Amino acid sequence: MKVYGDVMVGNQLLISLETAKACYTCFKCVGVCPVGLRPNMIVKAYVGSIVSEFHDIYESIIRDSNIWICAKCLKCVEICPQRVPITEIIEYLQFVASKHGVVPKAYLNMIENVVDTYIAFSSQTIVTRDGDIYLTEDVRDTWGLNPLPDTQDIEGFRRKLKEIEETG
Amino acid sequence: MRLAVFTGCFTLVKQIAVEASMLRVIQYFNIEPITPQKTNCCGFAFRSIAPNTSLYLTARILAYLNAFESEGILTLCNGCYLMLKETIYKLKENQRLLEAIRKHLKDEGIDIKSIPRVIHPIELFHDIIGIETLKNIANTKQYNISIATHYGCHALRPSTLPSFDNPLNPNKMEKIAEALGFKTKDYPERLDCCGAVLLASKPELAMKLAYSKIAGTARWGFQLLITTCPYCFEMLDSRQEAVMQMFGEEPKLPVMLLTQLIGLQLGLNEKDLALNFNLSPIDRVLPQILKR
Q1: Of A72, A98, A164, Cβ closest to residue B56
Q2: What dihedral angle (degrees, nearest 10) is formed by the CA atoms of B177, B79, B282, B211?
Q3: Cβ–Cβ gap A168/B52 under 8 Å
Q4: Cα→Cα distances B37→A67, A115, A127, B9, B283, Å
Q5: Residue B281 above 60 pLDDT?
Q6: What ipTM, to 2 d.p.?
Q7: B14–A161 CB contact, under 8 Å
Q8: CA–CA gap between residue B262 and residue B51 (Å, rounded)
Q9: Tens of pLDDT along B118-139?
């Protein structure tokens, strides 16, 4: 078996090969997955990211947008008799997929919003039971809640995020 | 008692009832909410794509909110709650990581001097305000209303992190509802996912999961479902009509926030509790609750 190297996200070492290889394909995770993913195959793909065995599965999964249909319900993690951290494995493969351009646009929009405004979403329209439509700012004001974060001095925050993204 | 309140982005811009009802209700219990204006995203959206940035964003909230001298961070959204809880675990386990993050935070003029306590709304009502206090509010009144509890995945799982309740068989929300004079019972879909995470990647699948949760729950004869999470509330309440229409059915399950239900018991008015933003058929159950 050829070892391709440690599996890293940023500067953090993730799950070891031994941990992932503990999966003996009991299919319990397949049974509980609400979206019909086959988490056991995803664990195999992760093994394939480190060693040559299952490398073809790894190559196909990181190019498939279905890696993003995990609902992050964490049921697979709870049912796994071997305690394989399946959602962390899925998140690692999502990370690799994103480097190949396989990433939902909505995630990129949220990231852009955070960089621009501190928060993941911009102002929205909010409907009431009576059919009235309000803007976020108006509702917050009417209910005496804080306005959305002030972005006047966001430059330092933005620089910091960029620095972390580039250097870790 | 002073608690720093972390609302999270989705409550800030969309599910304002989560914040409005919580602030009204906790003040009744003499809890002083600290609501700083300059918090950031918890980092959930960055988890897979930019994990280092994600960790920094979460740590930044811990540092920023910790500076306000409170007894904990009350976290309104389940997703944010998981992020904060997980980050605290990572920082406690890894001193080098903590020091590296503190260095970055100091550049922004903030620091994590101590690791704060993160509090979930269910934990607040069950463990801090307490069941006896809630029983006193209900004052032996009993309702013929059967409530389905919905905790939401990230309130409980993964069980590898410390939890305020049994992650595999929680019961604190049931105890709260029963203390308030309502009936509860277990049901097969109780710990099922609302689907909200999929709104960003596959919305039609998100709707399918929400349908499965709503239709599945409704068939057991509940009159009301309660939750605390803004995303679960979005899927189960705000989008219920659209979800049911997708499958050729009518909205059928009234949904309220736990804080709205408690607020009604306290005699707070519907506007203060932002009940006009509930889009599920709560008119079916509201008169009975208001009759007390």
Answers
A1: A164
A2: -110
A3: yes
A4: 36, 17, 24, 12, 34
A5: yes
A6: 0.95
A7: no
A8: 38
A9: 999 999 999 999 999 999 998 8
User: pLDDT, tens digit, for every residue of B75-118?
Assistant: 999 999 999 999 999 999 899 999 999 999 999 999 999 999 99
Q: pLDDT tens across A115-145, in order?
A: 999 999 999 999 999 999 999 999 999 999 9
Task: Provide the chain B residues 213-272 that lie in CB contact (below 8 A) with chain A.
Answer: none
Mean pLDDT of chain A: 91
Q: Rounded distance, CA B45 to CA B35, Å?
A: 23
Summarize pLDDT for B15-29 with one digit per residue, the tens.
Answer: 999 999 999 999 999
Residue with tokens 């926030």: B257
pLDDT of residue B138: 85
> Contacts from A109-116 at CB under 8 Å and sequence distance 24+?
A110/B41, A110/B45, A110/B200, A111/B45, A111/B46, A111/B49, A111/B50, A113/B41, A114/A161, A114/B40, A114/B41, A114/B45, A114/B46, A114/B57, A115/A158, A115/A161, A116/A151, A116/A154
- Residue A6 confidence (pLDDT) above 60: no
- CB A31 within 8 Å of CB A37: no
Cα distances (Å, whole numbers) of residue B284 to A1, A46, B258:
64, 50, 17
Yes or no: say if A30 and A61 are a contact pair by the CB < 8 Å rule: no
Q: Is B60 exposed, middle or buried (0-12, 13-18, 19+ CB in 10 A)?
A: buried
- In Å, what is the CA distance from A37 to each residue of A68, A89, A90, B170? 10, 13, 11, 26
CA geometry: angle at B284 spanning B280 and B287, to 5°?
A: 120
Do residues A93 and A45 make contact, with C-beta atoms less than 8 angstroms apart?
Answer: yes
- Position A103 pLDDT exceeds 90: yes
Position A10 scores a pLDDT of 53
- Contact between A6 and A13 under an 8 Å Cβ cutoff? The reply is yes
Query: Does A114 contact B19 at a Cβ distance shorter than 8 Å?
Result: no
